[in-house]
Amino acid sequence: MDKLGLFQNIRVYWLAFIVYWGIVLFGYDTGIGGGVVSQGYFKSHFGLTNPDGSANTKKSNDVSSNVVSVLQAGAFFGALGSAPISAWIGRKWSLFGWTIIFAVGAILQTVAGGSRGLGYIYAGRVIAGIGIGAISAVAPAYVSECSPKDVRGRITGLFQIMVAIGVMISYFINLGISLHIKSGPAVWRIPFGFQLVPAGILAFGLLTVKESPRWLASKGRLDDAIRNLAYMRRLSPDDERVRAEMAEIEAAIEEERQARKGLGLREAFFGKGNFIRFVIAVVIFLLQQWGGQNSVNYYAPQIFQSIGYSGTSNSLLASGIYGIVKVVATALFVFFLVDSLGRKLSLFISSMGMGILFFIIGALLKTYPPPTDPSAQPPPASKAMAAMLYLYVCFYSMGWGPLPWVYVSDIFPTRTRHYGLATASASQWLFNFVLSKVTPDMVTDLGYKIFLMFATINIGGMATFSLAIPETKGRSLEEMDIIFGSVSADQRQADIARQERALEHEINETTSERSIEQKV
User: Fold this and answer.
1) Alpha helix locations (H) across 90-208?
2) Which of 278, 413, 441, 484 is most buried, most CB within 10 Å of its CB?
3) Are 460 and 356 in contact, with CB atoms under 8 Å apart?
4) Which of 217, 155, 234 is closest to 410 using CA atoms?
5) By three-state DSSP, how is residue 237 classified?
6) Vertex 209, ends 208 and 211: CA angle to 5°?
7) What is the C-alpha to C-alpha distance for residues 269 and 196, in angstroms, rounded to an integer?
């Protein structure tokens, strides 16, 4: 297929821009909970203080971990439940339904306070979690299915830019509230209520985009599929390139139907060439979570305090800068490097860079412990460690940040993609949940050794894994079956040729019918 330019694919970029507002929510929600619970007025209002007004550390730690973890528990179930629903009603309308569910959860969190206690926040976080988990599974599948292969890595990589933007917004909203709003329900109503802004953009934006051509073709709605594909490529439905892409989609769907006729979930997971894809999807997110990034994400203020940035505004500002560096680094990688370096090389360089920097941070923290005086300015060693964390997030953003989602979106065939993305998303939330539960204790118990542990996982596990997986850059979604051994290359070529002949025949018949009608 000819190389398509930016404006040729403008409708695909628009679709990705709209759908990925759901991913801004994903990032925002992971960053906002801990910051809200740490506000003094929130603690006193919801009874997280001792009778004399001093902080009750155990109570506030319990509530903080609950607020973070119930969202992830809901997200785990939402991600799993999204697969059958998006296969049944389509990507677009299932996404719309999950957004409405999320909004209900956001409203419950926002109205908490007064006679409405913490139960409203917990219930709201669970319901919002169900929505966010499902959105995180459906959105990449939807965007991947609508993107042409030569820009698919760039477009699906927007996922991680949107996560980074969501996290950054949450850091700065927390910082703004800690500086300007000391009391009143606005302390939690502004951050929780803000969730409705991206949710509203997503819900209304979805009304302006088309359903996935691959999903329509899998349901036998070929005319709609060709019409939507032509619309997204800004070409005529009779254009040779549209017909060639449609033939490839149909050939893959037909092969899957033949190979899996009459078989359900068991075949989806254990069919020829499928099980290894699910193993990759789970392991890639296990490693991503245990590579240290989310520990830094959730507990950025605490981690900056642990290396010598004392005081709330100091550590929150350092976290905000970290958020900005992450967005910029992710954007540079996704737009300029993702489709030139390839998936394997990017993941390998990323994990080696992160591991080396974590070893340096661990060694510095052991050799130069941070000052115990909270009013002291950060010493040079603390500034060096902060610089290492900023460099670390650049390496993270060029590989293990955006690429697991791109890679998992790449490897699944149309028929099982929703199961694949749901499994990946559910694993991501499950390991996220475990990590957010154990990180505070690990930071306390391990000290500098936590950085050495993450460094070892980065180099020993993630770098090795990235060398073992197949390259997917520049391959169409339909070619993945050949890579993973579901079908031979010769068989695929014969199927494509047959579908092209069938389409040619159909178009010729339509043309001759039209000419007969005109003569009559």
Assistant:
1) 91-111, 118-146, 152-180, 186-193, 196-206
2) 413
3) no
4) 155
5) coil
6) 140
7) 36
Handedness of CA 387, 173, 316, 171 (dihedral sign): negative
- How many residues can be counted in the chain? 520
> What is the pTM (predicted TM-score) of this model?
0.76
In whole angstroms, what is the distance from residue 439 CA to residue 294 CA? 9
- Cβ 413 vs Cβ 486: under 8 Å: yes
> What mean pLDDT comes out for the span 457-475?
86
> What is the tens place of the pLDDT at every residue in 114-140?
778 788 999 999 999 999 989 988 998
Q: For residues 184 and 189, give the distance between their C-alpha atoms in angstroms, rounded to a whole number.
A: 9
Exposure string (b/e) for 166-179, b if CB count within 10 Å is 16 or more?
bbbbbbbbbbebbe
Using an 8 Å Cβ cutoff, are 212 and 91 in contact?
Answer: yes
Predicted pLDDT at 1: 43
CA distances, 365 to each of 148, 290, 380 (Å): 47, 20, 12
Closest by CA to 253, choosing from 286, 216, 302, 204, is 216
Torsion, CA 30, CA 34, CA 35, CA 40, rounded to 10: 160
First to last CA, the chain: 38
Q: Is 287 exposed, middle or buried (0-12, 13-18, 19+ CB in 10 A)?
A: buried
Q: What is the dihedral angle through the alpha carbons of 323, 327, 332, 334, rounded to the nearest 10 degrees? A: 130
Token pair for 512: 């001759």
Q: Residue 207 above 80 pLDDT? A: yes
